[in-house]
C-alpha cells in the first residue's frame, strides 16, 4: 500500500467504487476534481492493480480551521488499518491548525474518539439535488 499527500499521478480511472452508500454519487471525474480542489488529501493506492482504495480530504483556511468532509475506504479493503493510517496522516498534515472538525454518524463516534476527537453538536444543510456535484 502506498500513501500519497497529493493527486500527482492519480487519474479518474484509478477512482472506482467509492461513495458506496450514496444514492446519487459523484462520477470519477468529479471525484478527481474534489480531490484536486481540497486543501489537503491523503490517498491510499494499491499498486497492483494501481487503484485508489482509500482517501481523506480536508478543506482549510490554512490558519485556524480545517474541516474533514470525506473519508472512505473501499469495502474490500476495510478493517486493515487503512482508515486509521489516512486519519493519522491527515492529522499530521493539520498539526498546526487550531480547529479540526468533522461530522459523523453515531456508530463512528467511538472510532474517532481513538484519535482524541471529542463529540460535539453539528449543524448541517444538504442540497440533495447537488449530491453528485458536477457542472
Ligand atoms: C470508516 C472507514 C473509513 C474506516 O476505514 P477502515 O480502513 O475500515 O478502518 P480501520 O481499519 O482503520 O479501523 C477499523 C476499525 O473501525 C471500526 N469501524 C469501521 N467502520 C465502522 C462503522 N461503520 N461503524 C463502526 N465501527 C466501524 C472497525 O470495527 C474497526 O474497529 P477496531 O479498530 O476496534 O477493530 C470505512 O469503514 C468506510 O469507508 N466507511 C464508509 C464511509 C464512511 O462512513 N466514512 C466516514 C465518514 S464520517
Can you describe what's shown?
- The protein has helices spanning 28-37, 82-93, 109-113; strands spanning 2-4, 40-46, 51-60, 65-67, 71-73, 99-101.
- By secondary structure, it is of the alpha+beta class.
- It has one domain: 3-Layer(aba) Sandwich (Aminopeptidase), CATH 3.40.630.30.
- Strands 1, 2, 3, 4, 5 and 6 form a 6-stranded mixed beta sheet that branches.
- Bound molecules: coenzyme A.
- Coenzyme A is lined by residues 71-73, 78-84, 102, 104, 107-108, 111.
Count up the domains. 1
How many E strands? 6
Q: Categorize the overall geometry.
A: globular
In the CATH hierarchy, what is the superfamily? Gcn5-related N-acetyltransferase (GNAT)
Topology of this protein?
Layout: E1 2-4, H1 28-37, E2 40-46, E3 51-60, E4 65-67, E5 71-73, H2 82-93, E6 99-101, H3 109-113
Parallel strand pairs: 4-6
Antiparallel strand pairs: 1-2, 2-3, 3-4, 3-5
The structure holds coenzyme A.
Short descriptors:
135 residues; Aminopeptidase; 6 strands
Summarize the structure.
The protein is α+β, with helices and mostly antiparallel strands. It has helices spanning about 30-35, 80-95, 110-115, and strands spanning about 1-5, 40-45, 50-60, 65, 70-75, 100.
Amino acid at each position: 500500500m502506498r500513501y500519497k499527500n497529493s493527486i500527482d499521478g492519480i487519474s479518474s480511472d484509478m477512482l472506482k467504487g467509492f461513495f458506496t452508500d450514496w444514492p446519487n454519487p459523484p462520477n470519477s471525474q468529479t471525484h478527481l476534481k474534489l480531490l484536486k480542489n481540497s486543501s489537503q488529501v491523503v490517498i491510499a493506492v494499491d499498486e497492483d492493480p494501481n487503484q485508489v482504495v482509500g482517501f481523506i480530504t480536508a478543506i482549510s483556511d490554512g490558519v485556524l480551521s480545517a474541516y474533514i468532509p470525506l473519508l472512505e475506504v473501499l469495502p474490500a479493503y476495510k478493517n486493515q488499518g487503512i482508515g486509521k493510517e489516512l486519519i493519522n496522516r491527515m492529522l499530521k498534515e493539520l498539526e498546526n491548525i487550531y480547529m479540526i472538525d468533522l461530522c459523523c454518524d453515531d456508530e463512528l463516534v467511538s472510532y474517532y474518539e481513538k484519535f482524541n476527537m471529542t463529540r460535539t453538536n453539528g449543524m448541517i444543510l444538504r442540497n440533495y439535488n447537488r449530491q453528485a456535484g458536477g457542472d
